[in-house]
Design goal:
The complex is a heterodimer. By secondary structure, chain A is mainly alpha-helical. Chain A contains 15 helices and 4 strands. In chain A, α14 runs antiparallel to α15. The chains are: A mainly alpha, B alpha/beta.
Chain lengths: ~350, ~425
């Protein structure tokens, strides 16, 4: 391709990427090292229908002057990153010094919001990614093996979790796992404990979210693998059959190696997606038991008091986390790309 | 999503009706756009403000449960998207902190001489909002269930616990106590109420330093835990809507609930007739031998945006004034709220809020940093109620989380 043609082809994309991806990330970075100005508080008298009380309020004129002076706010450097809501360096040090056993130390760390969220995020990612890929693979193998006549309906049913919007799917399950819902009541009956509630126990909430995650994302793996299965060389399979390879051996030594590049691609996408887990926590109303980094950003941005610098710092940490997690897979892709 | 839809339908209906019934509000031109919460009383106010619309005066509104997320961004622009935000005791602070609402003194002097003084919310000597209703949480109980166990309606949380115990032991209900204990804003509000009932103060006097890690704080937490033992085990996911649904289903006999939400529990339409006929309201409860009820008083009112033209400000003021004029009171609207409007006669369901005021309940603290503490409480209480942290650690963690946020926001050094 000539350079000019290449540029004409690539320039619009590059511009869009710069405007909509690079610039916002830079802006988030800048935001994360700044905090709002010191507030100038004044004692005032407030009168409401219930009488007058002494109270405090923000001095708007003084604040306006501060804002005009430094429109970006106070420069705090990495202060927000190190505070208790994020990496919590001093709390970590105190926990390390104050705990006799390693178990105590982890116990204390899990009281810190960022590490609690990270613990859930990593657990979710580490379980949902392999299990949803594996489930998708087995469903694809099964569908590929059934007679053509039934494949259409079975594929449709297998894809249902992906067709249903995540929020709607989660809401349906939310009612089913309620202590008066069908799954919730069944669990109570099975455990023989009428007070057991899926929504009230942290462990059960985590399991529920992970099962939901696997259920809702397996169809993606299924679709990709099903497409991949159509490209498995039939002559290799047939010669293996003549050599007396069992069904399992054919899958193990021909199908899985053939589909390996697809698996790498899928792992890449799934790790990224699962690290940003958010919707199930909102729709299952599970904020009390499970928080993820994305949920954290969401709660900082919403509500009466917006903590924009805190949300920005968590965003930067999330981007960093995705990069770290993806690097092995990226390196692998890079190498195999170089070999090809 | 369904909340947005629910909000959009009545708004569209108001807009349609506005052109039919036009009122003379004194304003002829301008733009009025209201943002606010979505419950019957506020719908009534917005509908009546919309009656001021003329050919050159547009009135629109966006009433949604998400109002707190959109009112500040919607008023920061110049000109502001929303010319008026309907707010309450706590949410006015966020708008004040960011300086997006205007003092109303000049407008009150020119067009609002007839607004009673006690409806004017004055901050630092300037009128910043006009209140139109009062609200509070107070006791709601089932007459028939209490009669069955031969117990008078409780006056304290201790009596409520004793009654709940009997109801459960007699097998009348498995979880007789209700409460909006959803982790987050609702749960924090319950703590605020209980802590005030024990006589606690939230901050060291005159500063933004938190002061909730004390014996009153521990007592408040222990009481909340004792109550939660009689609640549906899913209580950490129940907001006031879900709690009301539990009530309507006849699963609950005693709860502390918002005055603005009790009306729908007593009407016959859409309710179990036994529940509707036996739902009664009582005074808010006291706790730990305290005199002040364990609840907070709230007002709802409207504001006018700062970043709009003088014409739009005048139009907004006059439309909102019409929205809360005595003419809005009729048989249907009378029971929707404890209106602070002339001619209002309390309905039986409003008795709880009236008694809250009579008992000298404290208003919710209107401090610039209270929202940060409220958020920290809402995020930090769940582990205690789930039995994973003791009360003192919970309170210390909440204070630490608050201090971090307050430092970022510049309230603490």
């Amino acid at each position: 391709m000539r350079h000019k043609t290449f540029l004409a082809f690539f320039l619009p994309t590059a511009t869009a990427m710069f405007l909509f991806i690079a610039l916002p990330i830079v802006s988030v970075l800048v935001q994360s090292v700044h905090a709002p100005h010191e507030q100038v508080i004044r004692e005032v008298e407030n009168c409401t229908p219930f009488g007058c009380t002494k109270s405090t309020t923000v001095d708007q004129d003084a604040t306006a002057a501060l804002r005009a002076d430094q429109p970006l706010g106070r420069f705090v450097g990495l202060g927000i990153y190190g505070d208790r809501s994020h990496l919590a360096f001093s709390e970590l040090a105190a926990a390390w010094a104050g705990s006799a056993r390693l178990g105590d130390f982890f116990d204390r760390i899990l009281h810190l919001p960022f590490y609690r969220a990270l613990a859930f995020t990593l657990t979710y990612m580490a379980t949902v990614t392999p299990l949803s890929i594996a489930l998708g693979f087995f469903v694809a193998l099964a569908v590929n093996a059934i007679p053509r006549l039934f494949r259409g309906p079975v594929i449709f049913v297998s894809l249902l979790p992906m067709i249903v919007t995540p929020l709607v799917g989660a809401l349906i399950l939310f009612w089913m796992v309620d202590s008066r819902g069908i799954i919730g009541a069944a669990v109570q009956w099975a455990a023989g404990d009428p007070n057991l509630s899926l929504k009230a126990s942290t462990t059960l909430t985590w399991i529920m979210l992970i099962v939901y995650g696997i259920w809702s994302t397996a169809p993606f793996a299924f679709v990709v693998y099903y497409a991949g299965l159509q490209t498995v060389p039939q002559d290799t399979l047939e010669s293996a059959m003549i050599d007396g390879a069992s069904r399992w051996e054919r899958v193990r030594y021909i199908v899985i190696p053939h589909l390996l590049p697809l698996t790498t691609f899928m792992a890449l996408i799934k790790i990224m997606d699962n690290f940003r887990v958010f919707e199930p926590i909102v729709s299952f109303n599970a904020g009390a038991h499970a928080q993820s980094l994305s949920y954290f950003i969401y709660s900082d941005l919403g509500g009466e008091t917006r903590l924009l610098s805190s949300a920005a710092a968590t965003s930067v940490l999330t981007i960093g986390g995705v990069l770290v997690l993806l690097s092995p897979v990226l390196v692998r892709t890079w190498r195999s790309f170089g070999r090809a | 999503m369904h909340k947005v839809l629910k909000a959009a339908i009545p708004v569209a209906a108001f807009l349609a009706s506005a052109s039919i019934a036009s009122a003379d509000c004194g304003a002829t031109s301008g733009r009025v756009n209201i943002v606010g919460n979505e419950f019957p009383a506020i719908k009534t106010v917005a509908a009546n403000a919309a009656k001021c619309a003329t050919g050159s005066l547009t009135v629109s509104s966006n009433l949604t449960a998400n109002h707190q997320k959109i009112n500040l961004p919607g008023m920061q622009g110049n000109p502001a998207e929303y010319t008026s935000a309907i707010i309450a005791t706590s949410s006015i602070v966020a708008l004040m902190n960011d300086n997006v609402i205007r003092p109303l003194d000049a407008l009150v002097a020119a067009h609002g001489a007839d607004i009673p003084k006690n409806q004017l919310i004055t901050i630092n000597g300037k009128v910043m909002a006009v209140a139109f209703m009062a609200n509070s949480q107070h006791l709601v109980y089932r007459k028939d269930v209490l009669e069955k166990i031969g117990v008078q309606p409780p006056k304290t949380y201790e009596e409520l616990l004793a009654a709940a115990k009997i109801i459960r032991e007699k097998g009348l209900m498995k979880n007789p106590v209700g409460g909006a204990y959803q982790a987050g804003w609702n749960l924090a509000q319950e703590f605020v109420n209980m802590y005030i009932g024990y006589g606690g103060e939230f901050f060291k006097p005159g500063s933004a330093e938190p002061a909730i890690n004390n014996p009153q704080g521990v007592a408040a937490l222990e009481m909340m835990k004792a109550l939660s033992a009689y609640m549906n085990p899913d209580f950490l996911t129940h907001d006031s809507n879900a709690t009301s649904a539990e009530w309507k289903a006849g699963n609950v006999a005693l709860m502390s609930m918002w005055g603005s939400r009790t009306g729908v529990l007593t009407v016959k339409e859409g309710n179990d007739p036994v529940v509707a006929a036996n739902t009664a309201v009582g005074a808010p409860l006291t706790v730990g031998g305290g005199k002040i009820p364990a609840t907070t008083l709230w007002w709802d009112g409207w504001t006018v945006a700062k970043n709009i033209s003088e014409d739009d400000a005048k139009a907004t003021f006059l439309a909102m004034k019409n929205g809360i004029s005595p003419s809005i009171l009729n048989d249907e609207t009378m029971g929707q709220a404890v209106w602070m409007i002339k001619g209002y006669k309390p309905a039986p369901v409003n008795e709880g809020v009236m008694q809250t005021m009579a008992m000298g309940a404290k208003p919710y603290p209107m401090l610039p940093y209270m929202g940060l503490l409220h958020t920290a409480i809402g995020d930090g209480l769940a582990p205690f109620l789930a039995g994973k942290k003791d009360a003192a650690t919970t309170l210390a963690d909440i204070q630490a989380a608050y201090v971090t946020a307050a430092k970022e926001k510049g309230f603490l050094k």
